[in-house]
Design brief:
Alpha-D-Glucose-1,6-Bisphosphate, Chain A, domain 4; eight-stranded antiparallel sheet
Length: 156
């Protein structure tokens, strides 16, 4: 049986908005639905809000099909940090489990946001040949900086 495939991704971006406004964009489902999805996708957000222990579901309709992100918030610190676990389903199949930490830092009148995601791709679902890696996705704008990316296989 093949081993799961692991990937680590870190993105940084300086946003031209104060930290309160950037953090707030994560809290309101109607606002989050406007920016969370890749370009060309339709996004719906449902859940108990962004707070420690809360659950949220995000449905994405992309040209490639439906995706469901099943999120549980592990640690939420106002205007500073959000960490969560995310299970990703495509066509009803569990394809990945992620641990995500989002950090917010004041940067002059702007906000430095750092997103670190540790992804375990489920062994039974492999990306088709020629598919895009996470740093080639259309939702990563040119002004975003891919800080670190690594692929490794589980040692067990």
């Amino acid at each position: 049986m093949p081993q799961p495939n692991f990937e680590s991704v870190t993105l940084e971006r300086v946003l031209d908005a104060p930290i309160e406004r950037v953090f707030s964009a994560w809290l309101k489902p109607e606002v989050k639905a406007q920016w969370f999805a890749p370009k060309g996708a339709i996004c719906a957000v449902d859940g108990g809000g962004v707070k420690t222990g809360a659950h949220e579901s995000i449905m994405l309709r992309t040209p490639q099909g439906l995706q469901l992100l099943d999120i549980t918030y592990c640690d939420v610190r106002h205007n500073a940090r959000i960490s969560y676990r995310c299970d990703t389903y495509v066509a009803g199949r569990h394809v990945a489990a992620s641990a995500v930490v989002v950090k917010f830092e004041a940067h002059g009148g702007q906000t430095l946001i750092t997103i670190r995601e540790e992804i375990m791709h489920v062994a039974m679902m492999t990306a088709p040949p020629g598919s895009r890696t996470i740093d080639q996705q259309p939702f990563i704008a040119p002004e975003e900086r891919l800080v670190a990316r690594s692929r490794y296989h589980a040692p067990f």
